[in-house]
Design brief:
The two termini are about 20 Å apart. This protein is of the alpha+beta class. The protein has eleven helices and twelve strands. It folds into two domains: about 200 residues, Ribosomal Protein S5, domain 2, CATH 3.30.230.10; about 170 residues, Alpha-Beta Plaits, CATH 3.30.70. Helix 10 packs antiparallel against helix 11. The strands form two sheets. Strands 1, 2, 3, 4, 5, 6, 7 and 12 form an eight-stranded mixed β-sheet that branches. Strands 9-10-8-11 form a four-stranded antiparallel β-sheet. A hairpin with a 6-residue loop joins strand 9 and strand 10. The longest helix is centred in the C-terminal third of the chain and has 25 residues.
């Protein structure tokens, strides 16, 4: 459910003693299918969720960002003329990083009093960081009287993470947070950034997100391992087949032909990415045609590949998806996000969604001893100026 805009405005006035000049929002996201394909120049199919980060702001006469994170009851200041990281209050780095990239583009920046209020769950793979980046961008746009195009805005958010924060992330999260549309998923080509909005119009079916409430454990070392293993497979196939820079450039037949030229682990990593790209393309067609059973089968196949070939699931994720698939009304279930914790996404018959959710949480807790969390969301809209 979206953050109450009136609450954000009231919190701003209580904190700063005046009314907000502008209020903006940006959503979190969940990836329907297309996992670990982005850094291999492949395809992804996320949707924005109805959970948002809201920023209420009022311009100042100086070059100071005076920020209050209402959820955490934390305050921080930053200078637009000295854009550096804040070790004590790292949450403001996402706002300062956006300002830093806008300054490089020569866009006008105004100091501001700003309040951040959000309900995107933290640390479970639903992109609370991208939501904050895109909300901060909307705030600066509103105060400065300019607007970036969708792809340019998303790439700015990626640069914030890559250059200002030092994180090796793809572009999917910022893209869907900025460019999502109510009632649609977003198919994105991570090589050339072309995208297409895909209607989510299943008659009598909806997505249910299930949080394992185990923090994601895909450490930087594990991430780098996967990148290197994919690169090893690319090198072997390039030596044998010719031109190619990423797994995106090869087919499953290419991989099978080169099977003896690489160890088993790079082979399986490549098999996941190549087949996941095919599943993502098939999923777009299934969604356009309203074929819930077909999409569910693709989600199940994706999850099995992530478990066996890419090895990024966990006991909790595997338990959550196994329980889900055993319940009436479930068309398909898969882990979503980087892996080793975080959330699953389930396509469920709408008439059975309530009983599905209750049974899923009860059986998950029984098997793991952990209390999970349900998030039911229709595809939401992208970042926008609300007031």
């Amino acid at each position: 459910m979206s953050v109450d805009i009136d609450k954000a405005k009231a919190c701003f006035e209580a904190e700063f003693g005046v009314a907000a000049e502008t209020v903006v929002r940006a959503p979190g996201r969940v990836n329907i299918i297309g996992e670990h394909t982005d850094y291999n120049h492949g395809f992804v199919l996320p949707m924005a969720i109805e959970h948002n980060t809201v920023v209420a702001a009022r311009r100042r006469s100086d070059r100071t960002l005076n920020a209050f994170a209402a959820n955490m009851n934390r305050r921080a200041q930053a200078s637009l003329d000295n854009r550096i990281r804040n070790d004590a209050e790292p949450w403001i780095d996402y706002v300062v990083g956006v300002a830093d990239e806008l300054d490089k583009l020569g866009q006008p920046l105004h100091g501001a009093d700003l309040l951040i209020l959000g309900n995107v769950p933290l640390g479970c793979g639903l992109s609370s960081s991208a939501a904050l980046e895109m909300a901060a961008l909307c705030m600066f746009e509103s105060l400065g009287g300019f607007r970036l195009e969708g792809a340019e805005a998303a790439r700015l958010g990626q640069r914030v993470e890559n250059l200002f924060l030092g994180l090796s992330t793809g572009i999917m999260d910022q893209f869907i947070s900025r460019c999502g549309k109510t009632g649609h998923g977003l198919f994105l080509d991570c090589r050339d950034f072309r995208y297409d909005l895909i209607p989510v119009a299943f008659p009598g079916a909806l997505f249910v997100i299930a949080n394992t409430c185990c923090a994601r454990g895909l450490t930087k070392s594990k991430y780098n391992e996967r990148v290197a293993e994919c690169g090893e497979a690319v090198a072997a196939m390039t030596a044998h087949k010719g031109a190619g820079t990423h797994l995106r450039d090869f087919t499953l037949d290419d991989l099978e032909t080169c099977r003896e030229l690489m160890p088993d682990t790079p082979f399986r990593r490549a098999r996941h990415v190549i087949t996941e790209n095919e599943r993502t393309l098939d999923a777009c067609e299934a969604m356009r045609l309203g074929q819930a059973e077909r999409l569910g089968a693709l989600m199940n196949a994706s999850d099995e590949s992530l478990c066996r070939d890419y090895e990024v699931t966990s006991f909790e994720l595997d338990t959550m998806t196994a329980v889900a698939r055993s319940l009436p009304g479930c068309f398909g279930a898969r882990m979503t996000g980087a892996g080793f914790g975080g959330c699953t996404i389930n396509l469920v018959a709408e008439a059975q969604a309530e009983s599905f959710g209750q049974a899923l949480m009860a059986q998950y807790t029984e098997r793991t001893g952990i209390q999970g969390e349900l998030i039911v969301s229709k595809p939401g809209g992208g970042a926008e100026i609300v007031k």
